[in-house]
Automatic annotation (TrEMBL):
Cellular component, GO annotation: plasma membrane
Subcellular location: Cell membrane
PANTHER family recorded: MALATE-2H(+)/NA(+)-LACTATE ANTIPORTER, NA+_H+ ANTIPORTER
Domain of life: Bacteria
Short name of any one Pfam family annotated for the protein: Na_H_antiporter
Protein family per UniProt: Belongs to the NhaC Na(+)/H(+) (TC 2.A.35) antiporter family.
GO molecular function: antiporter activity
Name of the protein described by the UniProt record: Na+/H+ antiporter NhaC family protein
Native species: Pontibacillus yanchengensis
Length: 430
């Protein structure tokens, strides 16, 4: 996609229409997830076609289609499809239940809250979905609060923290996929960079949870579990850490989960196929949004919108650190408006890539900053899916969870420190 030589602020109107429509719909309905994000996306797409340069409509549509069908967009679509299929099949054979019960079996009762954070971190890292992790663990967290003197807000906030750990790091998380593809880096390289930035936040969270729950015990009992059902998650994690191609990792995970299901439980080939289909179709809205936003970004770029923002940023940004801070602010602000960290990354990714190129920011760092600060906002906004889901299980207000959302807060601190100290220092640019 070519960058326009002439800056044009009017070209940003589709982006404004997208954010304003989504935000207003959420305010009017009182539920930011009641109105599909496809509606503001389509309105923004129409706007981008109407305000484009004075060329024929067919030429404008062709420009839009080229952006929507960009190779990076199509690779993201393939990964989203396989990610949805893997999560559905692994969950279908009982991998989530086995992982939870395995951890509950071996965790000391006086460290159950710390254990819930660790369980949530592992499951979200393996599943690649924070909402799915919260849905699986929140009922257990609520049960723990009922058997101890711990407030429900603490226990469900702990689940949210663990869920955001994997959302930020998992190789099959849609946020991570979007960050890696938009910044044109490798998944394993982004994982390593991101890991070193946020791990102190995880350790501080564990220490904080241990101190504030000291003396509390729980009598939550674990159910029986099958060791073999945990293998698909372990296989995906190990293969990813070894640097295998993400598409190959996901295909292997789907096949491994299917083989385990077919050989160890009441599971049929037809059910295996149905779950693959269900997992893929469950990603349909995200895929459509990704394609439409790809076209919108192309139109904005072709008509000078990206250049306008770059010119505006160059006036206030004087250093590499300033550019990294602008990346953090840009994705955070967008996430506040969209209440969806994946869409925030996809929406801002192209601009962030240009900022990174202009200021020689390593793509591993820019991808990590996109993911870290979007996950911070997503784990703290009371109208986001994560806190709404946790609050529903706990029968409390989402606002009550925020003071105990230690991990989302701490990764923002660690991200800020990484910006101010130029951490990590790369020997070579990838």
């Amino acid at each position: 996609m070519k960058q326009s030589a002439q800056a044009n602020p009017l070209s940003l109107l589709p982006f404004i229409v997208f954010l304003a429509t989504f935000f207003l719909a959420g305010m009017i309905t009182g539920d930011f997830y009641q109105v599909s994000m496809l509606i503001p996306a389509v309105l923004a797409a129409i706007t981008s076609l109407l305000i484009s340069k004075k060329i024929s409509l067919s030429s404008r549509v062709e420009q839009f289609a080229q952006g929507a069908g960009h190779p990076d967009i199509m690779i993201m679509v393939m990964i989203f499809l396989l990610s949805g299929a893997f999560s559905a099949v692994a969950n279908g054979i009982g991998s989530v239940d086995s992982t939870v019960n395995f951890a509950l079996t071996y965790l000391p009762q006086n460290m159950i809250i710390v254990g819930i954070f660790i369980i949530g971190s592992f499951i979200s890292l393996a599943m690649g979905t924070s909402v799915g992790t919260i849905s699986a663990l929140a009922p257990i967290a609520v049960g723990i609060s009922g058997e101890t003197e711990l407030p429900t807000a603490i226990t469900v906030a702990t689940v949210v923290g663990g869920a955001m750990f994997g959302d930020n790091l998992s190789i099959i998380s849609d946020t991570t996929i979007a960050a890696v593809r938009t910044q044109k880096t490798e998944m394993k390289d982004k994982f390593k960079t991101n890991f070193f930035i946020v791990m102190p936040a995880a350790f501080i969270t564990i220490g904080t949870l241990f101190v504030i729950t000291l003396g509390s015990t729980s009598t939550v009992s674990a159910e029986s579990f099958e060791w073999v059902n945990i293998l698909p998650y372990l296989g995906v994690l190990i293969a990813a850490l070894l640097g295998a191609n993400v598409l190959a990792v996901l295909l292997g995970g789907i096949l491994l989960a299917g083989i385990i299901g077919l050989t160890t439980s009441d599971y049929s080939l037809m059910k295996f196929m149905e779950q693959i289909t269900s997992g893929m179709t469950g990603m349909a809205e995200l895929i459509l949004l990704t394609i439409i936003l790809g076209g919108i970004v192309a139109m904005i770029q072709n008509n000078g919108g990206i250049q306008f923002i770059m010119n505006a940023l160059s006036k206030g940004v004087r250093s590499k650190k300033g550019a990294e801070a602008s990346i953090a602010g840009l994705v955070s602000t967008t996430n506040l408006a969209t209440a969806n960290n994946t869409i925030a990354i996809i929406t801002t990714g192209q601009l962030v890539k240009q900022i990174s190129d202009n200021y020689q920011i390593d793509p591993r760092k820019s991808a990590s900053l996109l993911d870290i600060f979007s996950c911070t906002i997503q784990g703290l906004i009371p109208y986001g899916a994560q806190l709404l889901t946790a609050a529903q299980f706990g029968e409390i207000s989402p606002l009550a969870i925020i003071p105990y959302s230690f991990y989302p807060m701490l990764i923002a601190v660690m991200g800020t420190i990484a910006i101010s100290t130029n951490f990590p220092r790369f020997k070579t640019s990838s």
